[in-house]
Amino acid sequence: MTIFALLSIPLLACGLNLMVRTRQWMEGIYLASAVGSFAATVFLAGEVLRQGPVSGSNGFLYADHLSALVAVLSALVYLVCAPYAIGYLRRDQADGVFAPKGDSRAELAKLRMYYSLTPLFVFCMFLVVVANNLGVMWIAIEGTTLASIFLVTFYTRPTSLEAAWKYAMIGGVGLSMALFGTVLTYYSAHQVLGGDSVSALNWSVLVLQAPHFDKSVMRLAFILILLGFGTKAGLAPMHTWKPDAYSEAPVPVAALMATAVLNCAIYGLARFYVLTVRCLGPSFASNLLILFGLLSVAVAVPFILVQRSSRRLLAYSSIDNGGIMVLGLGFGGALGALGMLLHMTYHSVTKPLLFFCFGNAQQHTGSDSLRKGAGGLVHALPITAPMLLLGALAVTGTPPFSMFQSEFMVLRAGFMGQHTGVAVIFVACLVAIFCGFFHHVAQVVLGPPRGLPPEPMCRWKTYPVIALSLVVIVMGFWLPSPVYQLVNGAARILAVQP
User: Fold this and answer.
1) Ramachandran region of residue 398, left (φ > 0), alpha (ψ -120 to 50) or beta?
2) CB of 253 closer than 8 Å to CB of 260
3) Confidence of residue 15 (pLDDT cuts 50, 70, 90)
4) What is the rounded average pLDDT for all residues in the chain?
5) Which residues contact 347 (CB under 8 A, 6 or more apart)?
6) How far apart are CA 472 and CA 202, in angstroms?
7) Alpha-carbon separation of residue 478 from 256, 263, 421, 470, 484 (angstroms)
C-alpha cells in the first residue's frame, strides 16, 4: 500500500491543480503533495529496512534498498523545492516575468501549468524507482523527459524553446538507444526464461538468471543502455543539452533535474550494470563506465574555469558529479558502490542549495552573470550570500563537508582496483574544478559591491536555504543511521559478483 500511496499522491495533486481556480489552492495542494510524498518514501524505506524488498501488483511494483534510497532522495528534493517554488513564482508574478502584469488569466494559466506538471514530473520519477519491469522503467524515464520539456519552455522565450527542442531531440535519441538496449536484454534472456512472458522483463527475475544470458547480445545491450541512460544523466559527450535546459527552466525545476532526474538515470544504468556483471563479469561494464565517468569529469573542467553564467556553472558541476557517480560504479567492489551512493546522497542535498542561492541572486539582480563587476552579493543578500559560499565549498568536496568523504571513497576504490592512472587524472580534475568554481562564487559574493539595496526577506525562499545549509553542515559530521543502512543495503546490491 505504501508504494501505491507514493505513486498516487503526486498524480492526485496533478489532477486537482488542473481543476482548482485560485493560486492559494494550487500552492496548498502542491505543498501537501510534497509533504505527503516525502512521508510515503520514509514509510517505504522503513518497510524495506524492516523486512527487505517489498512488492505489489504480483511483482509489477518492487522496492529494495536501492529503490527506497533513490525514492527518499527524490522526495527530499521535491520537499525542499516546493516552498521555494512558491516564493520564486510569486516574485516572478510580481515582476511580470511569465505573463503581463494585470493579466490574471494568463498568470493563473502559467501557475496551473507549473503546479500540475511538476507533480506529474515527480510521479514519473517515483515510477522509475518502483517499477520492477524494465520496460515500464524506460517508459517512466521517458515520462520525466516529456513532463520536463514543457517546464523548460515555461518562460516562452526564444532561448527557452530552443533549449527545450535541443533537450527533446538529444534526449529522444538517447532514450531510443535505451529502448533498443532494453529489447536486446529481453532477447538475450528469452531462451532462459522460456514462455514466462508476464515477468520476463522484471528485474527481480532477470537478476537471478543473468549468468545464463546470451553474452554477445548482452554486450551490445549494455552499450546501448549506457549511451541511452548516459544521455539522460548528461554524461559526456551526450551532455550538451544540460547547460541550455538548466539555464532556461525555473530554478526549482532545474534543481529537480540536476538531482532527482540525475539519480533516476544513474539508477536505471545501475540496474542494467548488475545484470551485465552477472552475465559477463565485471571488466566489460566497468571499463566502459570508467571511460565515460572520467570523460564527464574532464569535460566539465574547462567549462567551469571559463564560465560566465551561474546556471551553466551548475550544469557543468552536475556533469562533473554525475561522472563521479559513474566512476564509483565503474571502479566496482563494495567501496566503489558505497562511494557512489554516498555521493548521490550528499549531492542531492547540496546542489539544490546552490540553485536556490543563485536563483535568489538572479531574481534580485536581474542577471545570472559571473563576470567581473557582478559582485557584492554579501551586501545585498546577507543570508543567501554566505550560504552560497558554504554550498560552493561543499559541492567541490572541501573537507570536512560530506562530499569530500564520498569523493575520497571513490578515489580509494580506484586505487584498490588498480586504476592508478585514472585516479591521478581524477584528482587533478577535482583540484581544477575546485579552483574554478570557488573563484567564480567568491567573486560574486565578495567582489566589489554594485550598490544594490538589500532584498527584503521572503520566508518561502529563505527558509529552504537555511534548512539545506544546516543539513549540509550536519551531514559533514553525521549521517543518520537509517540513511546509512539504506545506502549500505543498496551498495550490497551493486557490489555484485558474477
Assistant:
1) beta
2) no
3) very high
4) 92
5) 259, 262, 321, 325, 395, 403
6) 37
7) 25, 22, 32, 12, 10
Q: Angle formed by the axes of helices 310-331 and 262-280, to 10°?
A: 20
**Banded pLDDT at 373 (limits 50, 70, 90):** low
- Write out pLDDT tens, residues 269-295: 999 999 999 999 989 999 999 999 999
Name the nearest CA neighbour of 352 among 391, 299, 393, 401.
Answer: 391
**Phi/psi of residue 389, each to 5°?**
-60, -45
Q: How wide is the angle at C-alpha 321 spanned by C-alphas 435 and 81, nearest 5°?
A: 105
Using a pLDDT cut of 90, give the percent of the chain over it.
Answer: 79
Residues 133 and 60: beta-carbon distance below 8 Å: yes
Supply the Cα-derived Rg of the chain in whole angstroms: 22
Residue 51 has pLDDT above 70, yes or no: yes
Report yes or no: 316 and 307 within 8 Å, Cβ to Cβ: yes
Distance (Å, rounded) from C-alpha 344 to C-alpha 300? 18
More confident residue, 363 or 453: 363
Grid cell digits, residue 472: 549540509
Q: Is there a contact between 49 and 63 (Cβ–Cβ < 8 Å)?
A: no
Is the pLDDT reported for residue 192 higher than 70? yes
Q: Which amino acid is at 34?
A: A
In tens, the pLDDT along 448-483 reads 777 677 878 889 999 999 999 999 999 999 999 999
pLDDT confidence tier of residue 84, bands split at 50, 70 and 90: very high
